[in-house]
Every structure is written in structure tokens, then in C-alpha cells.
């Protein structure tokens, strides 16, 4: 155990390029606009979508440096923690998940954390004040020391998996789309949490295409985050991108009756499961933009399906 595989991407056997699927949807049809879904949710059964794009470059770096323990951060329902735990199990390396909320330590694990533990991830619960400072080197060093870990063996991946390496991984998604999309597809939409996926996607797309990000959190911090991630990854701005902040529906994990109705109808009509925290908000926002005439007749819009429904949800496995 814990000797990292030389080529994690090959060892994990992804389905790449992920499929590009056209769906006929009246919300777009009636404006003469084609809707193309980039099914990145199908890229890997346990490390889907943007989790794959972000984790693999970090796993490669860990392997190259001989680091056998992944340490990362997340909330109690984090998709990123689950994907990291699965990747570590499949590659035979160690994983530690630092979880927000010391009060959770004494309680039964929820299904998401139980999955992480079943995959062999060691879980460490920290109080919220410490968790907020998790990007400070001194705080990280203290946490690692408390866990008995030596920094030479550890690869620390930030919350949500978004760092410069992850942004490079997401640029590969942009390049993949660039090879697949018709010239008429001027807009590529993606839902945003930390902004890492958008930062890379925009950089990978060619001239004449714009990445359009739909933040699922409230607040106007994201533009600065995306710029910062692009600076860290590429040294400065890259690609054409913008944000449309109107569709967070109240904030992270919040929803509205209209969003729920939209997602259910989209699932029924197209027979594909819609992840609710991110993907539903992006698709809903795109439908509104089509109604507003944002896309010229005769063009196409590509939407990145960044992940499947969360396990244990009414819509997931
Ligand atoms: C399914 C899904 N879509 C989109 C995102 C947003 O990605 P990012 O944090 O890179 O903006 C996430 C979070 O990682 C996610 O789980």
C-alpha cells in the first residue's frame, strides 16, 4: 500500500473523451438554438466530472514526488471528499479527509462520510474556526502534525480540489470540447462553486468561444477567485469568460419551487438524472437566457454536466 501509481490517469481507466450528447428541448428549439450536453458526469463512475479533471493532475504530481498520502478538506456532504477517497482506494494510497465541524465527531457518519470511511479514508473532524483558516500554512502544518503525518509524504489538496494543477486539468476539458464542438457553439456553460472548473475550461477553449459560469453560491467573490486561480495556473488571465450570478436560488443547496419543477421536468423529458446543487441551476439559467434571446438563432450552446446526482438523494444512486 501507499506507493503511488506512476500514471494514475491510466490506472483509473476513465471514459474519455466524455460523450457529447444533443438534446432536443423546446426551451431552446423555439429560439432556433441547439443544446449540447458534455456528459462529463460519465467520465468515471466514482470520480466523475470535474472531480476527475481536478484530481488527476494532483494525483500525478503526488506520484511524481513519491507522496503516498492525500490530505484534503470538505464539509460533511462533500462530493470532493468522496471522489478523493475513491481515487485513493483505487490507487492503493492513503487518504485523510479533514471535515468541517468538530461536533460531528461523536455522531454516526452520514451516508457520504460513511462512503469515504468505507473507502479507507481517515476522517478528522475540526472545529469551524480552525477549518476557516485551513489555507494558512501554519494551520495546515499543525493539523498534519496532530495527525502524525510528515509533510514529505503528504499531498495537500485544497477544499473543492481547486488549485493551479486542478485548473490545468480543467483546461483539458476545454481542449476536449474545442475538438468536438461545431463552430456554431459559441457558449460553453458550467456551474461554479470555487470557480476552478470555469478558470480552466475558459483557458482550454479556442478563440470565438466563451465560457459562461453560473455561481451556485451567493455573493460576488467568485470573479476574483477565478482571476486568482488563472493567475496561479497560467500567470494571468486566460480565455473569454463571464459569470451570470442570477441563478443561485438563495445560495448553496438552496432551491426554489421553480428550480425543482424545472429539474424534474428536464429529467423526465430527457431521461437523464440532473444533479441538483450545481447542474440544475446551470441548466435552469441557460433556459432563462434562451428565453431572453441571449443566443442567436442558428447557434448552439454546450452545457457541461459536471457530475451525477449525489448518492442517497431522491435523484441519485
Ligand atoms: C457537480 C459539480 N459541478 C460543479 C462544481 C463546481 O466546481 P468548481 O468548484 O470548480 O467551481 C462542483 C464542485 O466541485 C460539483 O460537485
Shape: globular
Strand content: 15-25%
**What is the SS-derived class?**
alpha/beta
- Poorly predicted runs are none
Give me the side-by-side strand order of the main sheet. Answer: 1-2-10-7-8-9
What is the distance, rounded to the nearest whole angstrom, between the alpha carbons of the first and last residues? 29 Å
Order of helices and strands: HEHEHEHEHEHHEHEHEHEHHE
- The total strand number stands at 10
Helix content: 25-40%
Q: Largest beta sheet, briefly?
A: 6 strands, mixed
How much is the radius of gyration in Å? 19 Å
Tally of DSSP helical segments: 12
Average residue pLDDT: 95
Bound ligands, each once: pyridoxal-5'-phosphate
Short description:
The protein has 317 residues and is α/β, with parallel strands linked by helices. It has twelve helices and ten strands. It is globular and about 60 Å long.
Structure description:
With 317 residues, the protein is an alpha/beta fold. The chain is 40% helix and 17% strand. The chain is built from twelve helices and ten strands. The chain has helices at residues 8-11, 26-29, 49-64, 79-91, 111-118, 128-132, 137-146, 164-180, 196-204, 222-234, 257-270, 279-291; strands spanning 20-23, 34-38, 69-74, 94-100, 122-126, 154-157, 185-192, 210-215, 241-243, 300-304. The strands form two sheets. It has a six-stranded mixed sheet. A four-stranded parallel sheet has the order 5-4-3-6. The mean pLDDT is 95. The structure holds pyridoxal-5'-phosphate. Pyridoxal-5'-phosphate is lined by residues 49-50, 79-80, 160, 162, 191-198, 275, 278-279, 306-307.
Amino acid at each position: 500500500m501507499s506507493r503511488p501509481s506512476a500514471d494514475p490517469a491510466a490506472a483509473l481507466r476513465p471514459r474519455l473523451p466524455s460523450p457529447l450528447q444533443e438534446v432536443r428541448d423546446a426551451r431552446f428549439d423555439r429560439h432556433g438554438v441547439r443544446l449540447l450536453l458534455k456528459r462529463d458526469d460519465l467520465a468515471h463512475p466514482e470520480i466523475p466530472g470535474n472531480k476527475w479533471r481536478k484530481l488527476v493532475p494532483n494525483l500525478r504530481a503526488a506520484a511524481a514526488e513519491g507522496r503516498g498520502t492525500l490530505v484534503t478538506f470538505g464539509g460533511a456532504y462533500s462530493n470532493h471528499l468522496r471522489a478523493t477517497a475513491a481515487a485513493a482506494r483505487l490507487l492503493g494510497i492513503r487518504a485523510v479527509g479533514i471535515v468541517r465541524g468538530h461536533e460531528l465527531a461523536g455522531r454516526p457518519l452520514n451516508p457520504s462520510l460513511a462512503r469515504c470511511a468505507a473507502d479507507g479514508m481517515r476522517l478528522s473532524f475540526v472545529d469551524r474556526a480552525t477549518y476557516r483558516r485551513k489555507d494558512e500554512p501554519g494551520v495546515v502544518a499543525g493539523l498534519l502534525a496532530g495527525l502524525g503525518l510528515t509533510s514529505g509524504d503528504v499531498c495537500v489538496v485544497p477544499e473543492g480540489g481547486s488549485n493551479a494543477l486542478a485548473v490545468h486539468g480543467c483546461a483539458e476539458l476545454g481542449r476536449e470540447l474545442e475538438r468536438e464542438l461545431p463552430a456554431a457553439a459559441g457558449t460553453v456553460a458550467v456551474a461554479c462553486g470555487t470557480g476552478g472548473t470555469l478558470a480552466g475550461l475558459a483557458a482550454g477553449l479556442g478563440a470565438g468561444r466563451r465560457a459562461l459560469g453560473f455561481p451556485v453560491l451567493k455573493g460576488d467573490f467568485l470573479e476574483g477567485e477565478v482571476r486568482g486561480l488563472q493567475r496561479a495556473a497560467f500567470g494571468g488571465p486566460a480565455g473569454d469568460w463571464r459569470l451570470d450570478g442570477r441563478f443561485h436560488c438563495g445560495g448553496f443547496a438552496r432551491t426554489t419551487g421553480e428550480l425543482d419543477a424545472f429539474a424534474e421536468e428536464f429529467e423526465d423529458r430527457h431521461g437523464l438524472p440532473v444533479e441538483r446543487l450545481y447542474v440544475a441551476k446551470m441548466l435552469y439559467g441557460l433556459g432563462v437566457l434562451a428565453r431572453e434571446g441571449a443566443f442567436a438563432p442558428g447557434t448552439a450552446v454546450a452545457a457541461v454536466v459536471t457530475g451525477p446526482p449525489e448518492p442517497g438523494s431522491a435523484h441519485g444512486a
